[in-house]
Specification:
There is one protein chain. With 257 residues, this protein is α+β, with helices and mostly antiparallel strands. It has helices at 4-14, 54-69, 72-80, 138-161, 163-166, 172-179, 235-243; strands at 28-32, 46-53, 93-96, 99-103, 109-113, 119-121, 127-129, 185-189, 200-205, 214-219, 222-227, 247-251. Helix 2 packs across helix 4. The structure holds zinc ion.
């Protein structure tokens, strides 16, 4: 059993290390906890230099943040609203399982679908075009994107609670999940509306039924919530999700380090 002063000492020495790996001797970096590819507003969602080390920042950026940026929904929003990435590049074309979407210079979105089976005539003379997202290894991508939301949550804990809280052992399991340790969890995905202006917000939620602490990313009409208390979705969450049009994506334990 550690005494109170020993606990405090260990919390203090931990807080000198990187928020993710806890190592104190790594080169520092500035952590953008929401990818800059989601728009200029993400530049404000940042932790001061040195809170996160450079190796963790670039490793996790490639491993998990890219998976989030490449979600079909995110790419569609970026294409429609011409959101530039950090290099100023915009999405010109999005491949579909049954065609492609081309975002032109003008305010024009060209949808090409293969075969007439994807077009239905509706009453009143309107046409319904079914666009089928192209997803490769979708389970793996969602698992990685969820880790990215969990990582964002840990950064928000740091912002609101400071290093003594965010570096404490209470978040070690979460740190492991962020790095790819097998964990059980879930991601809530709200009903998607691609035509909502891509306002960006990252927040901690404590007011959703069945979720003690959640990390929530809203990007226009995309709403993603991950539970920071790892474990499967309970029945209260499932009931709330069903009543409010949220999909529950279960994350089964699988190591992806
Ligand atoms: Zn690190």
């Amino acid at each position: 059993m550690l005494t109170e002063s020993q606990l405090l000492e260990s919390a203090l020495s931990r807080s000198e290390g990187c928020l993710y790996c806890l190592r104190p001797d790594q080169p520092p970096s500035i952590e953008h906890f929401v990818s800059l590819a989601l728009g200029p507003h993400a530049a404000e969602m940042v932790l001061p230099r040195g809170v996160v080390c450079e190796p963790c920042n670039s490793h996790l950026g490639r491993q998990i943040d890219e998976a989030l940026v490449h979600l079909f929904e995110v790419q569609l929003i970026r294409g429609i609203f011409k959101v530039p990435d950090r290099k100023g590049q915009m999405i010109e074309e999005l491949p579909l399982s049954n065609g492609r979407i081309v975002f032109t210079e003008e305010e024009l979105i060209k949808i090409e679908v293969f075969g007439t089976g994807h077009i239905q005539e509706k009453s009143g003379g309107s046409l319904l075009v079914n666009v089928i997202a192209k997803r490769r290894n979708s389970g793996d991508q969602l698992r990685r994107a969820t880790r990215s939301i969990l990582k964002m949550g840990l950064c928000l804990v740091y912002q609101s609670g400071g290093p003594a809280v965010a570096h404490s052992a209470a978040y070690d399991e979460l740190r492991g999940a962020i790095f790819g340790d097998a964990y059980e969890g879930y991601l809530l995905i709200g009903e998607f509306d691609p035509l909502q202006w891509p306002n960006l917000s990252a927040s901690l939620t404590g007011d959703l039924p069945g979720i003690g602490r959640g990390a929530r990313l809203r990007y226009g009409g995309l709403d993603l919530i991950a539970d920071l208390d790892l474990g499967p979705a309970n029945n209260v969450v499932r009931g709330w999700a069903q009543d409010n049009g949220y999909q529950v994506m279960d994350i089964s334990p699988k190591c992806t380090r």
